[in-house]
Structures are given as structure tokens and as C-alpha cells.
Structure to design on (848 residues):
């Protein structure tokens, strides 16, 4: 109820004159004196109407929204170690030669028991368990940046994680309830190097653009026209399909489907990181980027295949920033093409139908451990295959500190999941608002819905008892997997955020015979 | 009655003998499995500290800092010799790493962090002296993001000034366990180091030295080659400075360093290496660059001292 009260307050205060300027971090850059609060009555009416339509749409359709794992910039008025050094005169935060930021996040989720007529049928292993379970993640990250030479920045990010997923992370596609969960790891804290890369910027002129100091970003000025080359080890989401409204995902939506397109099976290791290169071309409000990155040696595993000319993930994205009635927005189109050692569903089915001895229980190569002797398995079909997809993203401010966003992607749906989720098609929509309307400008509230579909061949394969990555109940009544995510992040004591989150997941694992599932989550996040 | 008792004793003895005989082959073949540990013995000094292992204690000024990248390759850092002195097993025959460090300095104080990243660890498995050794098999492809035993440290220059004849200092490091023992990258236990440091400059010559304690709780004795509790650290270095143009300087000289377990003080469980180092430094600006290369050989190839090694490092450092 509190959420809805707050949401109504947001609607009422779309044009409150006392609102502070700028909410979402990204749009405060370079335009600190911009006031979004002086809208005319027509705009207010339009914004209110749009908001109401959107809320109705969300309630009626239960669709979803998205963000990603890249940290957000740190606003000037937010406490940080670097800001403190700058305040003491020890550090030039606007033209940094180095910086260091950190964060820690603890997320605890609980799901009560839910209805399921069957679980792990016939030796399949990928069902979400219908019993009540608790899951958690704890992460701590250090972001180190240094200016190496003219135009060059180097970044190193060690990270610590401890985790316990629901049902060993099995049984959900893009609706996994916590984006911090990794496909490897355990409860014993493990330190790893998440990123190490070099970024080289070549100035091409145009206006001077301020980049504020933050994690993975030295405080500096760039030309609005520039070429940026990146090489090393990173998350492709550091550059492609970046956070909606620059809201740090650790302050925002918790569901994995909100990080990026659920169907964007970007090449990465089991933690979500890749090696490779990215080239970006910025021309004022336009940006185009291309990247080639490493896939895992085997689907969803940690070892990386460095043969970048044999197996790779390619992606290309075009981006345009705009204003509609004075409100900023952005549109992106992203396409990917992966060539990886992975199996096609049709090939696995054909192999099984030609020879039933080639089933999930008799795999001689890598598989996920299914003992279903009556099911096909992708292990019999892995070879060099191609997966493709194309998607679009849009975000738009509809008022001061309020924005809506959506993304959708269509992938070919012929091959197994190699790195992200089993979604073949995905769509998300969401609304994010900061709390300046109720005098808590650093609070964040959001509502969003996320849906993922699988192709008919994918459904046939799962229906025959096959497993794909982390889904496969042994049987299926195919349907779209959907989640509704509501959260409120309250800021307190300068560096902490406490979040309450509720997710309602229907058709877990694309199977309407099971569920729905309710997930309740509490998150504590601190950054310095 | 007596004859029944003696008969029973006889049967018991026979049974015991039979049982013993039946187990004899497995008892004779029983081998203890040797576990891995942190094989790396190049205990690097802080980023910006000049030498690879020693510390030049050149800490001064207002807020300053350093970042470093060090990479190295070691050949045969763990070779186990059999009781007959002839059998040799290179449990770890190749080891390569890259190390990232960052330091903050202020006045006479330095705090730093260091993240070692193992790139390659491999060797040969086998049995020596009744112990089964399983070689590591780690490569960058299989472990693309492993960080092994990161450390945080703190150094202080206690006496003397930068450029002076004698500087004295102290340092402490806390080493956090991370990684798998089977990969020979960690003890899987916390470790600490406390070092007493000395350094100085005399005209074109520069030197440094250290004595210290490596607090190591892992004691796998009597497994040959394995840690035997806490260790005594020692080292000395000296070099000559050759001035170049435009602020460039070249420093060349040896570093000799090693350790010995307190439980067997300089009596077997001791390893000592010598490293011939060359440093190309560009200093006298607020932002300085140092490129280092070291080539070394074991003086006492035992206890983790590599047969030979090559180390390369780059440091950027400076202060306001």
C-alpha cells in the first residue's frame, strides 16, 4: 500500500514547483542548472495522462523493464571518498588522474512454497523447487581508475561475492529474482577480478562534455565528437545497453530481466564478464558502438574461449538522445550475432529421434547433469552455430525525476542459451522515479514488468524433457515467463540504501503448469 | 581347560596375522596426499617502492600515490627430491603471474593493496618419499578472473630522509586467502608479514635491506617442500645509478632475498634467490615512471625458490 501511496504522490507532484532539479544521475551531467520543474499546464496534463496510462498498462499487462550491472556515476552531492579528498584540496575531481570507489550490497530473498504438479520430471534437474527457500547474495567491489597517458584511462575492479541462489539457480529464465546471482560461486566468499581494461579516447571536436567522477569513470571533459576504443576484460553491459536513466542497478530493480534484454545472450563467462574490444563513435547526440567479445568454452561456464576469430560474440548498437517537449530521452537499437560452440534444439531432437541412445542420460560431452533417458540433450548437437537477435530500447522523462523505459528483443530462438538467459524473445517496460517529490531526492521507486518467450522449437525440446541452461522441468506447458517487480529504495545516513522489493513471477521456466511464485526481498547497499 | 585357552590364543594369533597379512599390501602402498599451498616466494614490496622485493623507503611529500603492474615467470619453483637424493619431481615446473598494485602515500606513510593474478601453474604429478603430489593445472583460459591471496600493507619511514645515507622503516602486510590450494596459489589461511626495512643512497649508489617475519599458520611438515609454519625473511639489494638525459636514470644491481622456516632455521627448509635487476626511471616530476626488469637464479633452490625467474614491472608514482 505504501508503494501505491507513493506512486500516487508522484503522480500528484509531477509539477510540484518546489522540486529539485535533476534526478537521474546521467541527466545532471553538463546541465546542472537545468530545471525540469517549470512545465506548462498542457505538459503537466500530458505527463499525468501518460503516467496514468502507463500505470494502467503495467497493471493490465504485467510487462517488464530493464537496467544493467554497470555502476552509475556519483553525483556531486553524494558522499564519496573522492569527493572528500577534493573537498580537502587533495584531489582535482573534475580532471582526475586517478580515482577509487567502492560498494557493498547484501540482498536477501525469500520465496514461499508454490503450486507445482511436477518437479524435475523423469530425471530432469532444472525445476525451481516448489518448497519455501531463502536466497542471498553479498558483494563488495572496489573500482580503481587511473589516467595512463593522454586520452587513456585504465580500470581495475576486484570484486568479492558470496551467494546462495534458489534451487541452485535452476528453474527460471529471465525472471531470476536477483541480478547479482552468478552461475558460479557459493556461500564461501570468493574474490575475483571482474574488470581490467584500457579506454582510449580520440577527440574529434564539438562541445565539451562533462563526465563526472564515478566508478569506471575518471572525472574529465570529453569532446562531444570522439572515438573511444576499449580493450580488455569487462562486462559488455558497461558499454552496450547501459542503465536506464543511469540508475545504479544496486539502487534499482532487482530482477535479472531488468539488467538488459532477456533475449540478449551476450557472450560472457559464468559471471557475466568477457574479454575483447569495443569501439565507440560519438557525434553529439548520436553514438554508434561495435564490440567483439569472448564466449565461454562451454555454455554458462567460467572458462573462456579466447579464439576470437573462431568463436565470438559481436554486437552493434546505435543510440540517439533527444528531447520531447523539453524532456530528455534516448532511443537505442542493438543487434548481436554470436558464433559459438553450442547446440541447436532441432539438431538435438533429430539426434535423439534418430538414435534414442543419444539422450540426456548418456551424454559423453558437457551437459548439465540431467538423468532423463527419455529426453534429447544439446550435448549431442554442439558445434559451431550462430545465434542472432535485434532489439530496441527507449527511455523518456515524463516529468521531473520520473521516467519510463522499455526494451524488447527478438532472437532467432534456434540455439541454446550460452551465457545469459533462456529467453528467445523478451520485453520489459518500467517506471522509475526519484523521491524529490516527497522530499527524499535520493530515494528511488520503481515498478516494472518483464516477459520472456521461447521459440516453438525451444518449447518442443523442453517439452520432450530436454534441459537448456537452467530451465527444463521434464515437461512443459509453454507460456511466456513474466515477472512484476516493485521496489522502493530508501536512502539513509549518507551512504546507505535500504530496499524493499516484491516480485510476482508467473509461468516460471516458461511453464504455465507451475507457479506462480512470489518473491520478497530486502537489500542493503552502501557506496563510498 | 589350559589347553583350550592356549588353543584359543593360537587361533587369535593366527587370525590377527591373517588380518595383518590381508591388509599388508594396502598398508605398504599407502601414500599421503600432499596438498597445495601458496608457492610464490617473490614477496613483492609495495607499489612505488623501487626494488622488486626490497623497499627504497622513498616516501615523502603531501598526498601521493603509485600504481604498479608486475609480471613474472618462474621455472621449477617446486621441485621435490626423493629420499635417495636422485629422484626429482617438478610438482610446479612453470608459474606465471601478473600483479596489480596501488598505493597511497602521505608524508612518511604508505598504504597499499595488491592483487596477484595467476596466469599459468603447471607441473608433473607423482609420488616421492611416500607422498602423492598432484600438480596444478591452471591456465588463464580455465581461470580467467582468478585473484590469489590479495594483500593490504602499510609502510612507514621511521628515520632518515629521501636521498639520505640511511633510512629506516617498518612494514606490515595482511594476506587474505583466496583461490584453491590445489592450484598452488594459496594456503587457504590468513597470513601476515612484518618487516624491518633499511635503505639509503650514497652518491651514485643505492641500497636496501630487510629482515622480517612471515606469519604462516600452515604447517604441512613433514611433507617435503611444504610450508613448515612461520618463516624468517631476509634480503639485501644494492645498485649503481647511471644518470641519463631528460630526467631518465638507469639503476642496475642485484637483489638477494629468501626465507627460512623457524622450525628448521637455516637447516634445510630455506630458499634463497638472487635477482639481477635493471630499472629505468624517469623522475623529478610530479608523475614519475619506472620500468623494471629482473632476471634471477636460485642460490639455494629449496622451499619454493625458483630455479630461475624473469620479472618485469612498470610503476607510475608521484606526489604533490
Amino acid at each position: 500500500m505504501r508503494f501505491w501511496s507513493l506512486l500516487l504522490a508522484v503522480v500528484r507532484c509531477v509539477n510540484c514547483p518546489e522540486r529539485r532539479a535533476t534526478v537521474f544521475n546521467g541527466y545532471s551531467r553538463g546541465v546542472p542548472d537545468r530545471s525540469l520543474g517549470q512545465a506548462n499546464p498542457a505538459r503537466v496534463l500530458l505527463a499525468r495522462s501518460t503516467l496514468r496510462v502507463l500505470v494502467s498498462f503495467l497493471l493490465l499487462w504485467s510487462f517488464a523493464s530493464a537496467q544493467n550491472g554497470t555502476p552509475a556515476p556519483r553525483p556531486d552531492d553524494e558522499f564519496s571518498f573522492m569527493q572528500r579528498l577534493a573537498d580537502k584540496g587533495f584531489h582535482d575531481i573534475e580532471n582526475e588522474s586517478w580515482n577509487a570507489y567502492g560498494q557493498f550490497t547484501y540482498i536477501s530473498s525469500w520465496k514461499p512454497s508454490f503450486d507445482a504438479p511436477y518437479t524435475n520430471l523423469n530425471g530432469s534437474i532444472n525445476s525451481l523447487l516448489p518448497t519455501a527457500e531463502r536466497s542471498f547474495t553479498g558483494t563488495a567491489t572496489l573500482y580503481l581508475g587511473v589516467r595512463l597517458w593522454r586520452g587513456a584511462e585504465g580500470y581495475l575492479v576486484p570484486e568479492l561475492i558470496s551467494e546462495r541462489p534458489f534451487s541452485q539457480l535452476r528453474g527460471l529464465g529471465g525472471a531470476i529474482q536477483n541480478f547479482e546471482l552468478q552461475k558460479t560461486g557459493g556461500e564461501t566468499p570468493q574474490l575475483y577480478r571482474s574488470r581490467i581494461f584500457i579506454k582510449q579516447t580520440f577527440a574529434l571536436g564539438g562541445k565539451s562534455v562533462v563526465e563526472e567522477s564515478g566508478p569506471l569513470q575518471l572525472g574529465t571533459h570529453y569532446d562531444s565528437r570522439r572515438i573511444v576504443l576499449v580493450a580488455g576484460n569487462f562486462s559488455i553491459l558497461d558499454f552496450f545497453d547501459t542503465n536506464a536513466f543511469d540508475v545504479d542497478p544496486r539502487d534499482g530493480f532487482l530482477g535479472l530481466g531488468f539488467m538488459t534484454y532477456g533475449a540478449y545472450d551476450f557472450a560472457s563467462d559464468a559471471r557475466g564478464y568477457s574479454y575483447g574490444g569495443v569501439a565507440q563513435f560519438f557525434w553529439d547526440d548520436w553514438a554508434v558502438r561495435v564490440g567483439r567479445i569472448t564466449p565461454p568454452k562451454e555454455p554458462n561456464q567460467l572458462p573462456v574461449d579466447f579464439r576470437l576469430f573462431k568463436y565470438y560474440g559481436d554486437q552493434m548498437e546505435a543510440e540517439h538522445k533527444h528531447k520531447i517537449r523539453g524532456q530528455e530521452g534516448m532511443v537505442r537499437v542493438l543487434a548481436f550475432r554470436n558464433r559459438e560452440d553450442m547446440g541447436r534444439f532441432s539438431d538435438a531432437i533429430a539426434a535423439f529421434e534418430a538414435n534414442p541412445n543419444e539422450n540426456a542420460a548418456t551424454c559423453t560431452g558437457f551437459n548439465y547433469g540431467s538423468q532423463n533417458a527419455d529426453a534429447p540433450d544439446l550435448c549431442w548437437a554442439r558445434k559451431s552455430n550462430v545465434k542472432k537477435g535485434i532489439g530496441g530500447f527507449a527511455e523518456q522523462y515524463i516529468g521531473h525525476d520520473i521516467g519510463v523505459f522499455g526494451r524488447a528483443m527478438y532472437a532467432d530462438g534456434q540455439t541454446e542459451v550460452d551465457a545469459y538467459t533462456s529467453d528467445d524473445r523478451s520485453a520489459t517496460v518500467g517506471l522509475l522515479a526519484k523521491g524529490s517529490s516527497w522530499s527524499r531526492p535520493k530515494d528511488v521507486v520503481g515498478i516494472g514488468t518483464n516477459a520472456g518467450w521461447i521459440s516453438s522449437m525451444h518449447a518442443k525440446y523442453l517439452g520432450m524433457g530436454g534441459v537448456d541452461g537452467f530451465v527444463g522441468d521434464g515437461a512443459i506447458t509453454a507460456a511466456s515467463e513474466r515477472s512484476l517487480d516493485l521496489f522502493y529504495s530508501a536512502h539513509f545516513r549518507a551512504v546507505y540504501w535500504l530496499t524493499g522489493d516484491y516480485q510476482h513471477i508467473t509461468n516460471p521456466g516458461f511453464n504455465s503448469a507451475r507457479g506462480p511464485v512470489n518473491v520478497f526481498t530486502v537489500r542493503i547497499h552502501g557506496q563510498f | 581347560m589350559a589347553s583350550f585357552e592356549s588353543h584359543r590364543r593360537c587361533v587369535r594369533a593366527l587370525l590377527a596375522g591373517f588380518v595383518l597379512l590381508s591388509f599388508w599390501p594396502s598398508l605398504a602402498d599407502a601414500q599421503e596426499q600432499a596438498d597445495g599451498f601458496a608457492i610464490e616466494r617473490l614477496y613483492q614490496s609495495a607499489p612505488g617502492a623501487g626494488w622488486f622485493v626490497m623497499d627504497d623507503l622513498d616516501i615523502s611529500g603531501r598526498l601521493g600515490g603509485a600504481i604498479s603492474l608486475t609480471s613474472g615467470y618462474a621455472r621449477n619453483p617446486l621441485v621435490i627430491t626423493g629420499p635417495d637424493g636422485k629422484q626429482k619431481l617438478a610438482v610446479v615446473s612453470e608459474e606465471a603471474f601478473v600483479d596489480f598494485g596501488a598505493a597511497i602515500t602521505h608524508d612518511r606513510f604508505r598504504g597499499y593493496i595488491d592483487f596477484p593474478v595467476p596466469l599459468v601453474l603447471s607441473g608433473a604429478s607423482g609420488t616421492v618419499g611416500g607422498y602423492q603430489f598432484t600438480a596444478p593445472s591452471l591456465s588463464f583460459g580455465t581461470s580467467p578472473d582468478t585473484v590469489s591471496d590479495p594483500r593490504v600493507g602499510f609502510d612507514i619511514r621511521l628515520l632518515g630522509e629521501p636521498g639520505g645515507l640511511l633510512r629506516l622503516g617498518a612494514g606490515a602486510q595482511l594476506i587474505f586467502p583466496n583461490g584453491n590450494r590445489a592450484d598452488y596459489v594459496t594456503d587457504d589461511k590468513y597470513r601476515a608479514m612484518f618487516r624491518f626495512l633499511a635503505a639509503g643512497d650514497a652518491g651514485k649508489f643505492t641500497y636496501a635491506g630487510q629482515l622480517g617475519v612471515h606469519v604462516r599458520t600452515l604447517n604441512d611438515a613433514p611433507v617435503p617442500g611444504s610450508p613448515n609454519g612461520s618463516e624468517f625473511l631476509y634480503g639485501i639489494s644494492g645498485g649503481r645509478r647511471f644518470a641519463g638525459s631528460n630526467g631518465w636514470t638507469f639503476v642496475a644491481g642485484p637483489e638477494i632475498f629468501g626465507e627460512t622456516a623457524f622450525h628448521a632455521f637455516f637447516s634445510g627448509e630455506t630458499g634463497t634467490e638472487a635477482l639481477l635487476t635493471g630499472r629505468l626511471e624517469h623522475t623529478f616530476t610530479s608523475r614519475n615512471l619506472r620500468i623494471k626488469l629482473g632476471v634471477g637464479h636460485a642460490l639455494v633452490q629449496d622451499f619454493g625458490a625458483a630455479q630461475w625467474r624473469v620479472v618485469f614491472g612498470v610503476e607510475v608514482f608521484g606526489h604533490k
